[in-house]
Each structure stands twice: as structure tokens, then as C-alpha cells.
Design goal:
With 223 residues, the protein is an alpha/beta fold. The protein contains 7 helices and 8 strands. The protein has a single domain, classed as TIM Barrel. The protein is globular, with a radius of gyration of 16 Å. The chain binds zinc ion. Zinc ion binds next to loops.
């Protein structure tokens, strides 16, 4: 797996297949989804059991599916995995599914992509329990500066879309622990970069350099 040279943008979390020579895209797959037969060479994948997929009795099946998907060499990140207090399977099943994936990520030496809605206590408990060697990146973070600061203190990274790019969050968190994403918005990642740069007070190229460097430090690439 070798993303090309001349990369300007990194979209750390999207559900849309895009192919672009100047953009590395981390496309999300849920357990049971297959890696597409055909994808742009700058595409990487995250693969995980999403809490919304869980029921009372399907965890074992989803685990088997996920093990098949994560074996693909373009799967660089484990997730979306996490906690959702509003939707998805029973809380204890969500916890069990999460720990399974966290241990798998640790064994494979991969970072995790976290979905968390009203589940911060469980996420923190899991983080203390697993003590991961690679960062857990909370995607779609839309919280305030206080929550962002306390999560960053505990070692979490944040992947931000337009809705999460608030001045108080960018003040609270080291910029070395931030990635940018489009999720399912359909917008171009360059728009998210533009908002990040203007909110953080960077010029466009500095923002691109920073995100490349963050991505490289997370995944060991050399973009
Ligand atoms: Zn998503």
C-alpha cells in the first residue's frame, strides 16, 4: 500500500468512494461490507463493527465478517467502533464489541476510529482498560472546548468535519492531534481544510503540511 506523491488533502473519514490523485481518502466499511474490487490507489479503508449494527445476538457473526475484511492490505484503521447511547445494540453488547475491536487493533498495531454519542464514560473506561499503543481518533467530534481538552489530555485524537471546527476546540487541543473529514456530507475535503485554516489562523499550505504530518505520525506513512 503506497499512496502516491503530491498529496494535498487527507479525508480521514468518508462513506463516499472518491478517487483523486491529490487526496488520500480513508473510506469506511462496516463489518460485512467487502473491500470494493476496484478503488483508486490513494484509497485506504477503515473497517469496524459500528454500534448501530449490533443486536442482541449478532456479535459473533459480525466478528467473523470483520476478521475477513481487516486482513486486506488497504485496511489501515479499525472502526468505526464505539458507543451510541441513542441507537444500536444493548450497552453491554456495544462494550463487548468495542473491546474485541480494540484488542484486534492493538494486535495489528493499528489506530482506531471512534464513533461516540452519549458514551463518553464507556469510551474512557475502555481506554483505561486497553491502554492502546496507537491513538484512538474520535470522528465527527462536535463537543465543546472543555470536553475536547479533557479527551486530548487522556490521549485521544479528534477527526473534525465542518460542524466540529469551532475556535474553542482548536484552542483546547494540540493541532498535532487533529485530522479532517467529510463523513457522509458529500462536500469536498478542500472546503473542510479551508475552514480549518481560517479558524486556526493558518494559510492553506501550512494546513496541508500539518495534516500530512499528523497522518504520517498516526500511520507511519511518508506523504
Ligand atoms: Zn461516518
Amino acid at each position: 500500500m503506497n499512496p502516491g506523491r503530491g498529496i494535498k488533502f487527507i479525508d480521514f473519514h468518508t462513506h463516499n468512494a472518491t478517487g483523486n490523485d491529490d487526496t488520500v481518502t480513508v473510506m469506511n466499511l462496516m463489518a460485512g461490507d467487502e473491500v470494493p474490487a476496484d478503488f483508486h490507489h490513494n484509497t485506504l479503508f477503515s473497517a469496524g463493527i459500528h454500534p448501530w449494527q449490533l443486536t442482541d445476538d449478532n456479535l459473533a457473526h459480525l466478528q467473523t465478517e470483520l476478521l475477513l475484511t481487516v486482513a486486506h492490505p488497504h485496511v489501515a484503521v479499525v472502526g468505526e467502533a464505539g458507543f451510541d447511547g441513542l441507537k444500536g445494540g444493548p450497552r453491554e453488547v456495544q462494550y463487548e464489541a468495542f473491546i474485541f475491536q480494540a484488542e484486534m487493533a492493538a494486535e495489528m498495531d493499528k489506530p482506531m476510529l471512534i464513533h461516540c454519542v452519549k458514551g463518553w464514560e464507556e469510551l474512557r473506561r475502555a481506554h483505561r482498560e486497553v491502554r492502546p499503543g496507537r491513538p484512538w481518533v474520535i470522528h465527527g467530534f462536535r463537543g465543546n472546548g472543555i470536553l475536547a481538552a479533557s479527551l486530548a489530555d487522556e490521549g485521544f485524537w479528534l477527526s473534525l468535519g465542518k460542524g466540529g471546527l469551532k475556535p474553542e476546540v482548536l484552542k483546547a487541543v494540540s493541532h498535532e492531534r487533529i485530522l479532517l473529514e467529510t463523513d457522509d456530507s458529500g462536500e469536498h475535503i478542500s472546503e473542510v481544510y479551508r475552514l480549518f485554516a481560517s479558524t486556526a489562523g493558518f494559510d492553506g499550505e501550512a494546513a496541508e503540511r500539518l495534516m500530512r504530518s499528523n497522518f504520517n505520525s498516526l500511520l507511519g506513512y511518508r506523504l
